Amino acid sequence: xxxxxxxxxxxxxxxxxxxxxALGQSSPNALTYNDxxxxxxxxxxxxxxxxxxxxxxxxxDFLIETxxxxxxxxxxxxxDTRVAPKGKLVIWLMGHNQGLFDxxxxxxxxxxxxxxxNKWFSICCRENPVGEECRGNIRLEAATGEDFSSDxxxxxxxxxxxxxxxxxxxxxxxxxxxxxxxxxxxxxxGLRWEDVIMSGSSHxxxxxxxxxxxxxxxxxVALCGPRDNYQTWQSLPSxxxxxxxxxxxxxxxxxxxxxxxxxxxEMLGMNKFGPIVNVDKIGPPYQNTRRLITDFDVDGNARRxxxxxxxxxxxxxxxDGKYIHEAVWKYLYTHPVDVVGEATPPxxxxxxNQRQ
Length: 356
Prior knowledge:
356 residues
């Protein structure tokens, strides 16, 4: 065969590889299952049993056991080996949501929820006015276990990063059919963060975004968040490219009516990749935007609005009882990160400096 023929083949291969990379997905052959009995696996383990260094932090109401002696540090994981894997791991930073785990697995995503020192929120940084870096620094310390704040003392074993690592290391041994070792570095001593999707709701979504400023990840999905309206970390340089941040909130959520969400979204640079799109009026792919809202009827209840953007009792349902935002959730977690909408200018009516 001619040299030009081989050159053409090489060009096609490079084009395919670059297209796969542009979609923000791993190569189809990068992760495959070797499971003689494909099924959905759901696992859980106590953080304190995976790592003897784990400890309680009663000063921030973060416990390993409840006051009546019941375990408080269970962590959940799930994967479905019947579904072609995307090669992405969702780390969820809020209370376990079975509905979300079900959907992530149906998309071909691995998922874990970690128990880490996050109870500081109702105890620390409560002064008025709060320091501009107070909450952001604690979030980063809680996520990394490194010393970023003088208000808390959260060591590495109790931070999100180390607990996620220990959990995935255990999963790789406990459930080899699930291919969890794919998310470990070659030496097995770290997570491959570029294949991690950080996600959470409310407090958890805010920490997910703060962590992604520090550590490059595959994407961030913020449900009813991020907030921290008096903080400045949202405008810091980001290790994670700005087009990888996604948000979804209800317009009656207090974080929206008080301009917390529009402020954070713009400071994170999300307006560079599309307008705010009402998913109840415009269907997928939602103009390829990163900023999604809903205004479905919640009877004027702001608390319901806050939790309505994830599967559960507050979420919107149609006449047949089916969730109305199935396509939205799939978009948030699987839309190619390099397919973006048109940039829009900052909204002058969204108050950025809320200290005035």
